[in-house]
């Protein structure tokens, strides 16, 4: 279950075509320009092209990531809160139209007003959106963050606090990000450390709640609280740590998505192809008979 976040330029279905070309099992997409608050509704022909291409490529496992503009921890009454809730609702509606089962979101930033205050505002925002979208099947994945600035969600306990706090916890699950984990202070500096991190995750939120893993190396060292992605094996996370993630039985069927730079690598191949080759090379399996 390896894939990457791919461009939707020229139509969302193009991400599926590119994923097939790169021999991916899954894909992550934006469903709109993530830098804009205002969006036009998805045209019917684009929705039809999406489903037709899914059938053509056989890529059924898709994850969406919402806009980085959204901050569900914004203070009540603030214009940014109204805009964030409206856009988050739009993101879920688009996923529902495209039958995308998972929407990844960064929980939000408390903007200096304190973590407890910020977490309660996130819970209230999610409850508001869930109440407005009764019966929707798309599940929101709360992504672990690097803890940069006043960003929340950099501890497993914060993610579980949000899940426990909402009225419909079944509509939430979790997305791990290896670069964010090490930047937030979790020990991904060795295979043993990575194993302990997954054990801690299992104890706090449960690995069954992890529905997506972003497979990114980190340009920055452990605990620096900065979000900087690097190609696999080129940063501060050793390959043995990535091996723990790709060989964990509970994560076997979970989409593992690259979010690394898209330029061509030193051998002329796309970096996505190189990174996927490295990750697949870490997968343990039955030895071939001679």
Overall description:
- This protein is α/β, with parallel strands linked by helices and 290 residues long.
- It is 38% helix and 14% strand.
- It contains nine helices and ten strands.
- An eight-stranded parallel beta barrel has the order 1-2-3-4-5-6-7-10, surrounded by four helices. A two-stranded antiparallel ribbon has the order 8-9.
- The longest helix is centred in the N-terminal third of the chain and has 20 residues, at 79-98.
- The radius of gyration is 19 Å and the shape is globular.
- The two termini are 27 Å apart.
Topology (SSEs and partners):
Elements: E1 2-5, H1 13-21, E2 26-29, H2 44-57, E3 61-65, H3 79-98, E4 102-105, H4 115-132, E5 139-143, H5 156-165, E6 172-177, H6 178-184, H7 191-204, E7 210-214, E8 217-218, E9 229-230, H8 239-246, E10 256-258, H9 271-281
Parallel strand pairs: 1-2, 1-10, 2-3, 3-4, 4-5, 5-6, 6-7, 7-10
Antiparallel strand pairs: 8-9
Helix pairs in contact: 1-2, 3-4, 4-5, 7-8
